[in-house]
Amino acid sequence: MIKTQWEPSQMRGPYQIGERRIYKSCAAVRSDDDNEQDLQSSSIGRFSAACQVTHDAIVIGLGPAGSTACRTLALKGLKVAGIDKAIHPRYKSCGGCISPKIDGLLGFDASHLIERTIHGIAFTYKFGRRLDVVSDRPLGYNVMRGAFDHLLVEKAREAGSEIIEGCRVTGVSDDGGHVTVRTADGRGLEARFAIGADGASGFIGRERFGLNPRECAVSLTAEVPYGFAGAKEMTDRAHVDFGSIPFGYSWIFPKKDRLSIGIAVDSMRPGAGAKEHFRELVSRHPVLKGIDERAIKTDGWTVPVYYAGIKDMVRGRIAIAGDTGHLVDPFMGEGIYYAAASGMAAAEAVAEAAASGRTDLSQYQRWLEEDVFPELKAACRLSEIVYRHPRLWYSIIEKEPEIMRRFYGVLRGEEGLAPFYGWVMSRIKARPWNLLRHWVASRFRPA
Ligand SMILES: Cc1cc2nc3c(=O)[nH]c(=O)nc-3n(C[C@H](O)[C@H](O)[C@H](O)COP(=O)(O)OP(=O)(O)OC[C@H]3O[C@@H](n4cnc5c(N)ncnc54)[C@H](O)[C@@H]3O)c2cc1C
Q1: 372 CA → ligand 1 middle, Å
Q2: Region for 6 from its dihedrals, namely left if φ exceeds 0, alpha if ψ lies in -120 to 50, beta otherwise
Q3: How far does the centroid of ligand 1 lie from the alpha carbon of residue 396, in Å?
Q4: Is the pTM value of this prediction over 0.90?
Q5: Measured from the CB, is residue 218 less than 6 Å from ligand 1?
Q6: Which structural domains are found in the chain, ordered by start?
Q7: Residues 145-169: pLDDT tens digits?
Q8: What is the CA(311)–ligand 1 centre distance, in A?
């Protein structure tokens, strides 16, 4: 197994994530030198007379977005609290396949959590025709989310974040000079800034930023222990099926002693229910042959994919990151990398603002508009082609597997999704009659 170090190896984006500039937090200002002038001029000093501003920042939700935000803020010397309604390690319904784009981002080694490194994908069309596109370099790291997210929380704690678990946040408001975060146990925490990272099940994106929770994919997943006939196939290859689900796809990701299997279907499009599609995956996918269907326990969740019209991720002193802001690629459903990257970028913007005594978090918004939204928009366009015309798409990649090989470069961060999309379109446009002929022929071929 090729291991990734997931060590900081390169600077990314305008915030140079991984940089270690230390800003003084309010606590540091007080304890350093009791300088009355400093205390008066620090924002926290000003607020403390009127209200109990106890933290520079409060982060709501401790998935990959929230815990990386906490760690980044704590490493910069800010006083930060991260609150999660769950107690880690918690179960998270997820394929758990992280793209190598994450290499160098986290700033610490998490390679011991990789259960399988993926080097290829077996694409099928309606569980029939199969196309294996393999690579000699990794294109995915499969982890169990409970363990992965737990490590991220512990790294945030280690860096100096205050971690509050088992505590549900019920409200967050920007009260002009500070934010107030209310919890179900009746606490009211006040801070200079807040980062909303409460994920797909949270309320901040919906209630505070007006994002549409119906713009999502509905998924059903299960963890299946090995020990059935097809399990021997499970090496370093993921399985992805197009065509069996209208406006969606199914996947099988191998882990150490089990498979993560699942389906995702666009909640805004008509089609059979998720349960029916899941049953079809289990009964028809060749590698799941011999599996005891009755022993499978499913878990339903939503994937808040990016959609056209998403704009503001910052309102006053509050920024949102990860699933809260629908930062999930609608083509393949990749969200872990975007959660970690956006959590860090939001934290960088908070640290910059706190250091300069401003409330302006617009550098985070700019990073999203320049580096992230164009990628996710390209993923929207690509998914329109792939999921509206899965048979045509499958015929194209059968004929030109190079397309998927180049997509692996996108997963590795060697190329953006936007230029990849442009390249795919130019390739399709350059061969219109050829492909059309192939597509017509494919319609008469048995699936
Ligand atoms: C079925 C499925 C399969 C997926 N497969 C993949 C994959 O293979 N690869 C990939 O890259 N992405 C995948 N994704 C997407 C990925 O799981 C998410 O994008 C990622 O978890 C986003 O991280 P996050 O930190 O934003 O949110 P989350 O990981 O959801 O964390 C949010 C946290 O907020 C907490 N919270 C919620 N509400 C409150 C509250 N009121 N108060 C306090 N805490 C609260 C929750 O307990 C949770 O810990 C998948 C998603 C699904 C549903």
Answers
A1: 18
A2: left
A3: 33
A4: no
A5: no
A6: 26-106+144-213+306-377 (3.50.50.60), 119-135+215-303 (3.30.9.10), 389-443 (no CATH)
A7: 999 999 999 999 999 999 999 999 9
A8: 21
